[in-house]
């Protein structure tokens, strides 16, 4: 089993011929998560081959145009495609007003339920095997960073042990593998811990949104397998970055370092960097395991078996 991270849009503020507006996709077990939905996100979904799956959730970091102008187009297309599955969109307060203006003015009447959830800090979604957490970060308007964190997975299954305990191969094995107790045909109760190894940790992926230096983000990114961090300016423009509440490679790399993250990917790259290698060099000076995102870059995280 793996998680696929696809960078659909990697520009900051203004798109360029090479970079579409901000949007990060994470595909996990048939479910697609979008973090931000910049203009053109729907086309990038098509180009990437991810398409428009029924299980789709969108998380908006903040209501700056470059992060949300893709929503109207995407909802319009899903409507034309006669989607019926509900669409969940999470984001800071103001998201509902933004979408209701669009729906009214362009007469958008999707046949699917648009479940808009205005959220703040904390666990904003808890599913069977993952949670999504949010924290407020440091930007010019209220902005959330998000973490998609898998719950620990049940440990490795030992079939010989199950056989010894009288559990026949078949559906009962599956139940034990999912962490549920079963009763054998001769009436004995077998608990999952009798046939499973220790729980295995899941992955944690963190998306910064737009932000300057943020202690809350360091906490959110604690032990992350992958930190996707905005990087609008290089270190020589750190004063400008502070004024605009954006990040430099130094800020992104220091966040990854202090959080003990495994890997850092810089995104939200300003149009001024035709060649972003200066950003990469500056970040790697502090945090070597850094790369720069480009549109349609795919990173796959594999669970150990
Ligand atoms: Zn932005
Ligand atoms: Zn912004």
Structure description:
With 305 residues, the protein is of the alpha/beta class. It has helices spanning 41-48, 65-68, 70-80, 95-106, 159-164, 171-177, 215-220, 238-244, 249-259, 277-284; strands at 2-9, 11-12, 23-28, 31-35, 56-59, 87-91, 114-118, 122-126, 130-136, 144-150, 182-183, 189-190, 204-207, 226-230, 264-267, 269-270, 290-292, 298-302. A 7-stranded mixed β-sheet has the order 7-6-5-4-3-1-18. Helix 4 (95-106) links the parallel strand 6 (87-91) and strand 7. The model has no long low-confidence stretch (mean pLDDT 96). It binds zinc ion (2 copies). One zinc ion (ZN) binds at residues 62, 64, 139, 210. The site of one zinc ion has 4 residues, from loops.
């Amino acid at each position: 089993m793996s998680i696929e991270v696809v960078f659909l849009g990697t520009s900051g503020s203004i798109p360029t011929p090479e970079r579409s507006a901000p949007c990060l996709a994470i595909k996990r077990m048939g479910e697609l998560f979008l973090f931000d939905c910049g203009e053109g996100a729907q086309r990038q979904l098509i180009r990437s081959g991810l398409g428009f799956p029924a299980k789709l959730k969108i998380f908006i970091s903040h209501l700056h145009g470059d992060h949300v102008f893709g929503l109207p187009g995407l909802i319009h297309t899903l409507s034309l495609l006669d989607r019926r599955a509900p669409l969940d969109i999470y984001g800071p307060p103001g998201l509902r007003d933004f979408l209701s203006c669009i729906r009214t003015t362009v007469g958008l009447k999707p046949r699917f339920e648009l479940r808009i959830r205005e959220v703040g800090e904390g666990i904003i979604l808890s599913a069977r095997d993952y949670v999504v957490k949010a924290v407020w970060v440091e930007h010019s308007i209220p902005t959330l960073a998000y973490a998609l964190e898998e719950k620990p997975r049940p440990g490795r299954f030992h079939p010989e042990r199950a056989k010894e305990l009288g559990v026949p191969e078949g559906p009962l094995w599956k139940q034990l593998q999912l962490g549920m107790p079963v009763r054998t045909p001769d009436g004995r109760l077998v608990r999952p811990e009798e046939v499973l190894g220790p729980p295995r940790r899941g992955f944690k992926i963190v998306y910064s949104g737009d932000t300057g230096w943020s202690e809350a983000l360091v906490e959110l990114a604690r032990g992350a397998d992958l930190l996707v961090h905005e990087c609008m300016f290089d270190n020589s423009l750190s004063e400008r970055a502070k004024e605009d509440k954006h990040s430099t490679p130094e800020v992104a790399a220091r966040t990854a370092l202090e959080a003990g993250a495994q890997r850092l990917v810089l995104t939200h790259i300003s149009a001024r960097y035709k060649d972003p290698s200066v950003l990469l060099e500056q970040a790697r000076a502090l945090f070597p395991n850094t790369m720069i995102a480009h549109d349609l870059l795919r990173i796959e995280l594999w669970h150990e078996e």
